[in-house]
């Protein structure tokens, strides 16, 4: 049920995204305490993004989860995902925002129903 949506202005053409998706999935599952089988990662590249008035490499993310989020966990998630983006896509940690949404099961659709 956790879903991490990542958008970056970095082109993903020719980039092997599998290691990014895998590492992000494992990280989210571990830090939130949910089975990885329920984690979804969405990665979109070549998205027009201006941050601080420049179009240098940047990224924006949103993480939605039914529980498992709190200030301490969010801080760890922010650091971990920023590190992945920096090491895999050369997006500086200072050019990445991550927004957290802790939602109710009734607000999350899956398998033709809700949680």
Automatic annotation (TrEMBL):
Recorded GO cellular component terms are: extracellular space
Single GO molecular-function term? phenylpyruvate tautomerase activity
Q: Which family does it belong to?
A: Belongs to the MIF family.
The protein's name is: Putative macrophage migration inhibitory factor family protein
Q: Which organism is it from?
A: Wolffia arrhiza (Rootless water-meal)
């Amino acid at each position: 049920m956790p879903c991490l949506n990542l958008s970056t202005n970095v082109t993903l053409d020719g980039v092997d995204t599998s290691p990014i998706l895998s590492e992000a999935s494992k990280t989210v599952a571990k830090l939130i305490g949910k089975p990885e089988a329920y984690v979804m990662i969405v990665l979109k590249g070549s998205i027009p993004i201006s941050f601080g008035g420049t179009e240098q490499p940047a990224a924006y993310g949103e993480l939605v989860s039914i529980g498992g989020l709190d200030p301490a966990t969010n801080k760890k998630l922010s650091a971990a995902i920023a590190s992945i983006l920096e090491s895999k896509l050369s997006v500086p940690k200072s050019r990445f925002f991550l927004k957290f949404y802790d939602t109710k099961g009734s607000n999350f659709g899956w398998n033709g129903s809700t949680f």
